[in-house]
Amino acid sequence: MFSLVFTRRYCMGHRLRRSGPKCAVPHGHNSYVKVTLQGDKPNPIDGGRNDVAPFGFAKARWHKWIDNHVDHALHLDEADPLLAFFREHEPELCSRLLVVPGDPTTEMLAACFAAKANAILADQGLGLTCARVEVEETPTNTVVFEGDPADALPGGAERWWWRADMAINDLPEAYAAET
């Protein structure tokens, strides 16, 4: 079986309030995310098009989401007091906040990214699924997620990571201007 593999670099800020004082201070990383996509069924070389799916089409929405929404976003726990600050004082920046339940660890991101990739792929109808996500937080720390994101992620079926839209949080004020 063939796989398509795409890598994207992004910059991010976050704070991990439950991981001790060093990571509780907002800080940032230059990260890489690599997704591995596989066909829902075996993809033989057919003597015609000879590909699993057109690369450009398979990666376009994913890259748009990473580049325009995840890149330079601040990743916060949905209970972080900084979230209330942004909602009250700078609501125009809420669309730049990636919000998850609990600390926005690399593990959480990898599972969310897998779910988001699957939602986008299903919406495109290419017959592809995300089989693996690797998030390199630093040159010495990488998290790999394989499997069904539903087995790893908390929350309901309507959370941002299950939808094919470009959202990175579920804050109403973050996307009010778009509706």
Describe it for me?
By secondary structure, the protein is of the alpha/beta class. It has a single domain, classed as 2-Layer Sandwich (Tetrahydropterin Synthase, Chain A), CATH 3.30.479.10. Helix content is 27%, strand content 28%. The protein is built from four helices and six strands. A hairpin with a 2-residue loop joins strand 5 (128-138) and strand 6 (141-146). The model has no long low-confidence stretch (mean pLDDT 92).
Q: Summary?
A:
This protein is α/β, with parallel strands linked by helices. The protein has helices at residues 21-24, 55-70, 81-89, 106-124; strands spanning 3-14, 27-39, 73-77, 97-100, 128-138, 141-146.
Oligomer class: single chain
Helix content range: 25-40%
Specify the biggest β-sheet.
Answer: 6 strands, mixed
Give the number of helices. 4
CATH class: Alpha Beta
- Gross morphology is globular
Q: What's the structural domain tally? A: 1
The structural class is: alpha/beta
Instruction: From the alpha carbons, calculate the radius of gyration and give it in angstroms.
Output: 17 Å
CATH architecture designation = 2-Layer Sandwich
Strand order of the largest sheet: 4-3-1-2-5-6
Mean pLDDT value: 92
Provide the CATH topology.
Answer: Tetrahydropterin Synthase, Chain A
List descriptors.
27% helix; alpha/beta; 179 residues; Tetrahydropterin Synthase, Chain A; 4 helices; six-stranded mixed beta sheet; 28% strand
